[in-house]
């Protein structure tokens, strides 16, 4: 628990303090100290990897034919579809989004069951951007002690200059993030040119400014407060972990009782923790892991690096704080061998769900039809009796061509002898077949009137089939409807 939260709790427990304290803990600014170690190394590597993936994936090219941006990842809102490499998603295929969301949720649960909040500590966009902003802060203002002294120092030209440089860099990063976001919804080279030449529209400008402001505020000022008060993941993390989940853990059985100590001191009658506070100084959320598991812990492991530095200096075994499971920690306390149970019912169930959902998605993508037909029959009137005694029905026939090339089809009717068709916009009337041309990635809509003799009808409703034949491949698509009569 942070110092500010402890102060609020203490105030609430004091006489007269019940109900008089603030609704939330007043923020105490956190100045993390950097320690070299494997967790800091991996955190930095993943920081640059994730930033590179986010900022440059939109610039990957993919040939999609004429009329469509050659972009590998593009969410084309005006064109009402999404392109992700070789996959093209149309609005009516939004159920694929459901599958992706299920994969993301179950994957998050599986990661938590195995290694706690490893996502929060290394991959969450809030963590990545906050880490980058803190890195800039360290470059400009110095290490932890220098930053604390600068905060307490009165306003001066040196302080003003450092703060100005820091905020200018923060704003530049925020603008770059916002522009990068727009790349995924527009052709990246085109929108970049429009932004720098002042040709963007009103909504694009609003989005750019809003994302810039959000990044600047969240990563520059809110930081750990987002994890404390805005993110729901930490609230329900406890139900996704168990005694075999790997978590950032302080070995109290080895560290207590803690007291100040010097190198080469006898530790036979005391714990290994020398109460140096380095673990708290390294924590980006400002908590003390020695107080046990806390919602504010994001599982980044930076306190482990800090503690191991002190253990090396004191000549003591490392990993007083470690990424470990409760089961393994108890086993070590009892002198037993290492206990790691990554494969257990919980992880098996998550793996099965992930495999099943991925298999269904891949199978569905590989088998989906690139042609969709919709028939809407006129209801007012249901039918018309012509002067020659024949019955006429009207239909709106729509063809969705999901291919990247134009298509030509032949439309015919089955189930109604002697039926003829007339299409609005086509000079030839009363034909048994119609030729329909559809542009690439386009919906073709056709107004068709069908005419048949009364003697060929099966009462008030006759079942018929519209048969659509691809003139290039010979594939046939049949769609059922009805023909109404008296």
Major β-sheet, in short?
5 strands, antiparallel
Distance separating the two termini = 79 Å
Global mean pLDDT: 86
SS field, number of helical segments: 16
* SS-derived structural category: alpha+beta
Share of residues in helices: 40-55%
Question: What is the N-to-C succession of helices and strands?
Answer: HHEEEHHHHHHHHHEHHHEHHEEEEEEEEE
Task: List descriptors.
4-stranded antiparallel sheet; 18% strand
Brief synopsis:
The protein has 486 residues and is an alpha+beta fold. Helix content is 42%, strand content 18%.
Could you characterize the architecture of this molecule?
Helix content is 42%, strand content 18%. With 486 residues, the protein is an alpha+beta fold. Strands 6, 7, 8, 10 and 12 form a 5-stranded antiparallel beta sheet that branches. Strands 11-9-13-14 form a 4-stranded antiparallel beta sheet, with no helix packed on it. The longest helix is centred in the middle third of the chain and has 27 residues, at 157-183. Residues 11-19 have low confidence and may be disordered.
């Amino acid at each position: 628990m942070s110092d500010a939260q402890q102060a609020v709790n203490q105030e609430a427990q004091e006489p007269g303090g019940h109900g008089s304290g603030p609704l939330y803990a007043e923020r105490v600014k956190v100045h993390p100290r950097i320690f070299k170690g494997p967790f800091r190394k991996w955190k930095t590597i993943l920081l640059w990897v994730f930033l590179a993936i986010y900022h440059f994936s939109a610039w990957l090219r993919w040939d999609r034919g004429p009329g469509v941006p050659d972009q590998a990842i593009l969410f084309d809102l005006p064109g009402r579809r999404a392109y992700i490499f070789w996959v093209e998603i149309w609005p009516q295929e939004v159920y694929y989004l459901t599958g992706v969301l299920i994969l993301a949720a179950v994957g998050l649960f599986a990661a938590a069951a195995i290694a706690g909040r490893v996502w929060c500590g290394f991959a969450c966009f809030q963590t990545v951007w906050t880490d980058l902003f803190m890195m800039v802060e360290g470059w400009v203002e110095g290490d932890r002690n220098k930053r604390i002294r600068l905060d307490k120092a009165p306003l001066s030209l040196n302080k003003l200059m450092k703060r100005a440089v820091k905020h200018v860099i923060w704003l530049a990063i925020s603008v770059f993030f916002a522009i990068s976001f727009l790349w995924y919804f527009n052709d990246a080279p085109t929108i970049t040119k429009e932004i720098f030449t002042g040709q963007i529209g009103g909504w694009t400008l609003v989005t750019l400014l809003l994302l810039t402001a959000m990044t600047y505020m969240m990563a520059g000022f809110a930081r750990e407060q987002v994890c404390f008060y805005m993110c729901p993941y930490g609230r329900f993390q406890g139900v996704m972990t168990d005694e075999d989940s790997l978590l950032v853990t302080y070995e109290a059985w080895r560290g207590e009782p803690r007291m100040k100590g010097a190198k080469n001191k006898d530790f036979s009658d005391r714990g290994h923790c020398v109460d140096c506070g380095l673990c708290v100084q390294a924590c980006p959320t400002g908590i003390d892991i020695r107080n046990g598991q806390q919602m504010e812990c994001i599982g980044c492991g930076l306190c482990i690096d800090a503690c191991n530095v002190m253990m090396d200096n004191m000549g003591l075994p490392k990993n007083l704080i470690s990424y470990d499971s409760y089961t393994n920690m108890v086993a070590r306390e009892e002198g037993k061998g290492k206990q790691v149970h990554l494969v257990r019912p919980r992880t098996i169930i998550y793996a099965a769900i992930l495999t099943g959902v991925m298999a269904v998605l891949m199978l569905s993508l590989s088998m989906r039809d690139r042609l969709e037909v919709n028939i809407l029959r006129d209801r007012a009137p249901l039918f018309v009796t012509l002067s020659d005694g024949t019955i006429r029905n009207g239909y709106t026939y729509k063809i969705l061509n999901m291919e990247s090339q134009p298509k030509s089809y032949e439309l015919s009717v089955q189930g109604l002898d002697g039926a003829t068709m007339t299409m609005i916009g086509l000079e030839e009337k009363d034909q048994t077949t119609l030729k329909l041309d559809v542009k690439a990635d386009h919906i073709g809509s056709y107004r068709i009137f069908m005419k048949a003799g009364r003697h060929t009808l099966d009462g008030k409703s006759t079942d018929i089939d519209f048969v659509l034949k691809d003139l290039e491949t010979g594939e046939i698509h049949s769609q059922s409807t009805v023909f109404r009569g008296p």
